[in-house]
Amino acid sequence: VGGIVGGVAILLAKMGGPEAAWVALLVVLVALLVYRGYYKPIEKWSLLMIGLFTLFTIVSLISLQWTPMAISLQEIGSGLSFRIPDQATLFVALAVFGITGVGGDEIMAYNYWLIEKGYAANTGPREDTEAWNKRARSWINVMYMDALLALAAYTLVTAVFYLLGAAVLHSQSLLPEKKDLIDVLARIYTDSLGGWAKNFFLVGAFVVLFSTLLAALAAWTRLFTDAFGQIGLLDFHDLKQRRRWIAACAWIIPTIWGTCYLFMQAPTAMVLIGGAATTAILLIVVFAALIMRRRWLPDELKPGRIYDGILTLSMIAIASVGIWGLIDTIKKNMPKEDETTAVQQEENR
Questions:
Q1: Which residue of 175, 232, 248, 276 is surrounded by the most CB atoms within 10 Å?
Q2: Nearest to 284, CA basis, from 93, 98, 90, 154
Q3: Is 346 helix (H, G, I), strand (E, B) or coil?
């Protein structure tokens, strides 16, 4: 997330002022908004703006077909083939796997969102009655709808951004690196729509990235407060204590984000490192989901075979990619046979 802070700071620095000052301002602003509880109105405003930016991106992809960088059906077909990426791009592929769609950290954050949106409160305390089971099943159905809408939205947006990036950036060997990060990313839109689209991109990029910071901080403050409660530093069920810890985390966490960026100064690399970590978190989520499904779920609320089948396939897919990436990383970092022989000969001498 420090990489995202850096991305927003780079964007704002184009208006003037040192980058470090923008980092400090962003840290204070996002901390203040979450600390004061102004998240809800910004959430609604961000949803509208992100929706408009998504439509803008779809229009850019359609317009691309009238340029020399038009995407062919053959290219789309090759992208859907089951081929393992080469060693040079494997880490990037695994990192993107962790970031794409609903990541492991977002799945964990969803639990706190459910609590504060009132799903559990509307269901009421656990009762061994048909009325309670009916309410619980109804709210679980709402959760299914959440998941399906997220699946549709993330799949569409991810595919659109990927196609634009592959067609515009990859075809011209353009890399969004530190000093040119924003200008290179803007080419996705200016090369398909024209120079006028850059300002719209800058506004849209700010909204998307800043709302990501807000959502991440709102989630992390609750996640860490819960974690501290699990090890006995506070009573998570005491609302006053919980709010105090959430307020403290609202200042501490973004300060760490900003400090990480100022120390590393590599937003793209930082995002990729975070993506790789999120891939590992997905394995933890898979394990937790399996335990919850098999041991904790009341018999009255257990889903049908179709749900279990889809859940199992999802677990196998996530676990396979995560384990494959771990094994490949270990192999890549092991010394080759000729290198090992050379080391042994040197030790013998």
A1: 276
A2: 98
A3: helix
